[in-house]
Amino acid sequence: MPPERISIWILGDQMMEDHPGLALASDELDRDAVRIVMLESRARTQKLPYHKKKQVLLFSAMRHYGAHLKQQGYQVDYRRVETFLLGLKAHVEQWQPDQLITMAAKDHNGRLFQGQLGEILDLPVIILPNSQFLVEQFDPYPDTKEDQDRVMEYFYRKMRTHFGVLMTESGEPLGGEWNYDKFNRQTLPKDIDIPDILGFPPDEITRQVMAEVENGVHGVGSVDGFNLAVTHEQAKLVFEDFLQNRLENFGPYEDAMTQRSAAIFHSMLSPYINLGLLDPLYLVQRVEEQYQQGLVPINSAEGFIRQVIGWREYIYWQYWRRLPEVMSGNSWDAHRSLPGFFWTGETAMHCLSHTFSQIRDTGYTHHIERLMLICNFSLLTGLDPFAVNDWFLSSFIDAYEWVMYPNVIGMGLNADSGRTATKPYISSANYIHKMSDYCSECHFDHQQRTGKRACPFNYLYWNFILQNEERLRSNPRSGRYVLGLRYLDEEERNRVMRQASLFIAELS
Ligand code: FAD
Question: What spacing in Å lies between the alpha carbon of 399 and ligand 1's midpoint?
Fold first, then answer.
């Protein structure tokens, strides 16, 4: 009997070297009967004005991946189409497969679409489990009921134990502690050398995509200066460069912010991990090796490993567990639209101006700026969580729905009634001054709470606490925020509220 004709649809964020669909076409006979389908959808790209560098990254990586599969002897049907459905229909009409195989999408809408394909295409459709997350193989809390809260720390410990990462043979955490944050959260020394992130000059494929994107649909930023990795080999080189040049300092300066560098000692690997160009377990094991060989301290190795098999997996797990509520929370009842400086960077607040301009230019800023500058500001000024979420989705090179909702609606804006993070992450200028070098060049004074030159983060912070005193007090983790109110007399409280309300009114 001739082999069945099989089509394998590989999604653009599933470009793994070991995509489970490829195993089905591992020998030559199989390969003749198999078509790999890859689709660039115009409609999907136009859903939001996505950052132009993200568009280049995605399409260039897809075209390189398609070419790589062809070199390996696969037959690849690569199409640029109006919608995924039209692309799949055209492929099925031409190739007449007996079945379509695909791997489960990371996000809810993608999976809904995949679930309907069999009926629409009138074809058996096999959806393989997603293998881009460890939590798809091992769920630390399979019996958890919807209303039970599981904090990241214990989730992470279970992941480490199950996958044997940084563990002794007797099941204890290596080094004796689960967490080495006491060595981290340091401020950045002024004279510390910060290496550049490894970049790559665009090749012919990338230059072609850059021209198409620049002349194509609307998007944030520009394609100029694009130098991201677009193949597995390049992404691995970025990772190896991180191991050699930045991992050692990753832990201590994880929370620091500076105008001197966007990533500081962070890895800048999220765009590649999210596309499938890098495998999370491989990263974690290589980092563990570095520690075992005495090349990096435990606080940096553990700090990085916690980001990857702790936070990243936890966020994905929360996304699926909290649907649909994670997509609709607005528990601080915030409805203000975003000020224009989110796109232009034109504000006198230097920390925000620098960060927004950098995001416009690169599509990247590290975790603390996302959380303690942008989300902090958005929460204190009552910006609509969905508008903030969409802004993040369109502005970042690593942004996807599954990662965005729990991070923005959940962790950043605490709009999910505290299901992702147990307290709102808010701060005054004091924290920003302590952890960054922004304040020294700012028009505003980080020490003044009210008055013409007072940093807006100060009166906005105290105003938020005054407006929400009861609610904050009732949560043991945020209760300490209200303690400082005892230093504000009636007059100062009135000044704070007046100035905050004027500032907020002028925002839109
Ligand atoms: P590193 O600090 O070097 O960390 C290593 C890796 O850990 C990252 O590459 C990432 O894969 C993973 N990681 C760490 N924290 C998280 C987390 N909370 N969620 C998911 N993965 C995590 N991450 C994205 O991948 N895409 C996003 O669109 C995104 N948006 C965010 C929005 C907000 C408001 C916040 C608070 C966080 C967001 N994050 C997002 C998480 C985190 O900020 C980024 O993963 C990280 O900054 C990426 O830079 P890096 O690779 O240099 O990270």
Answer: 9
The tens digit of pLDDT for each residue in 286-302 reads: 999 999 999 999 999 99
423 with 475: CB under 8 angstroms? yes
Among candidates 439, 464, 466, 468, which has minimal Cα distance to 454?
439
Give the Å distance between the CA of 270 and the centre of ligand 1.
Answer: 6
For residue range 467-489, list pLDDT tens digits in order.
999 999 998 888 888 888 888 99
pLDDT tens string 143-157: 776 556 788 999 999
Residue in the structure block whose two tokens are 């997350």: 133
Q: With contact defined as beta carbons under 8 Å apart, do 232 and 224 qualify?
A: no
* Ligand 1: centre distance to CA 278 (Å): 14
Rg (CA), the chain: 24
CA-nearest residue for atom 51, ligand 1, is 268
Please measure the distance between the N-terminal and C-terminal CA atoms of the chain and give it in whole angstroms: 68
246 lines ligand 1 (CB under 6 A): no
Residue owning tokens 């492929």: 91
Rounded to whole angstroms, the Cα distance separating 291 from 298 reads: 6
Q: How far is the CA of 367 from the centre of ligand 1 (A)?
A: 6
Whole-prediction pTM value? 0.96
**Mutation pick for ligand 1 pocket among 228, 376, 407, 420 (CB with most ligand atoms within 8 Å):** 407
What pLDDT digit, counting tens, does each position of 214-245 carry?
998 789 999 999 999 999 999 999 999 999 99
**Residue 503 beta carbon below 6 angstroms from any ligand 1 atom:** no
